[in-house]
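Entry:
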Amino acid sequence: MDKKNSFSSSIKTDTISSTVVFLVALPLCLGIAVASGASAFSGIITGIIGGLVVGYLSNSHVSVSGPAASLIAIVIVAIQDLGFEAFLLAGVLAGVFQLILGITKSGNFSNYIPTGVIQGMLTGIGLIIIFKQIPHTIGYDKEHEGDFFNYSLTDNTDGGYIHEIIHSLNFAHIGVIIVTLVSLGILISYNKIPFLKKLKLLPGALVAVIVSILINEAFRFFSPNLLITKDHLVKLPVSGSVKEFIGQFSFPDFSAISNPDIWITAITIAAVASIATLLTIESGDRLDPYKRHSDGNIELKAQGIGNILSSLIGGLPMTSVIVRTSANIDAGARTKLSAIFHGFLLLLTVIIIPSILNKIPMASLAAILLMIGLKLATPKVFKKMWKVGKHHFIPFIITAIGVVVLDLLKGVGLGMVISLLFVFRGYSKKAYEIKKENDEEEILLVKEVSFLNKSSMKKRFAQLPKNSTVTINAENSTYVGYDILELIRDFNDNSSKERNIKVVFKGFEKNHNIA
């Protein structure tokens, strides 16, 4: 970044973007906590630590950490089986494991994730956001924001996304729909009108939230039948006294440390949280307009410390989260001050102004998330990946579908498998180049020839005509695998004699033993 975009000159921009991220993170902190079987306050604790501590320790300029959707299934089972205090101990140990992973430099994993898979993950998450926010945009907030992360497209327990969208039509609320349409209109205007796009002091998401509050207050006085009730507003816990506020904290049960289930849960949380974080960091770097690089090892250490502190005072496990990171980038964040200040805002709200934030309609926040989803899953991405070629498009589309239909990690895993198959297929076809002259053929082996090329080499030998001459040239090869050498020996000793093919070797005497 140049001087214009330095840390000091970015304070104003980052303060504004942090407000937008805070407004997006707030309902997610509450909802993920509820969906995980914990108190809403636990989610707020995680968001605060994720902002203030991890935001400070991380060297990522744009990522935002908080309670993680990818951990819901693990957390809810662990709380049920272990009890909340014992579960907190597992969270502390998971943080220790992440700290060790960072110290041992295990954070380079994301460097081996293909672009198609990363882009597919972002697109899949964008589609999930769209599917899961549609019910909230018309007034169906059955589980607040917790159901936002039920990944299954057709889950038998609730019919999946499609059934939920159809079912939500039965609960359509005119007041909610008006707020949604106005919020979307404001957000679209900020994306399309040049003057508004430059108005960083008052971002579209913040304007949409303020206007939605004013609209609902107008409903209260002028059209009560359109009033959006508290069931469809943000639900932040309100404490009546300092003692009541302190009473919301919980602490780990260290006496359960000998329980093997604690350790299994800790290892599972550490593994899933680390992978999800590294993927988000990689994705965030790709979305970062300044194209800066984040160190995965530093991030794992930051996440480990964050999870230790969060679990020590009753918070949930955290990861770097793509929804909040995308919102942060979209709002114009330049440095990690944005993530840090969003944590400060979360802390401030639970202490000072929870009642004011509880006036925000969920529909307005759903509209903000809907626009984020549309940006991640824009048709331009599909066109771009299609033009790149099938070797990238197929892993991209399979990853996106896998993330939506299965879950985040399974979708990414499936995309990785498909990408590796393409790699293996490519290597197996690029073992050699062919030069022909009359009945003589020269097979020029490439720099490295391994067992992956065995099939194509077999095929080439089988296609050689009878009574011909073939030269196998390894002069440019630095490595010829044992399997290939065995194949060449077998061809020279058996197949070539049966078809009267003369075999000439080049380069093997110097670099390889073909005797």
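Residues 143-157 have pLDDT under 50 and may be disordered.
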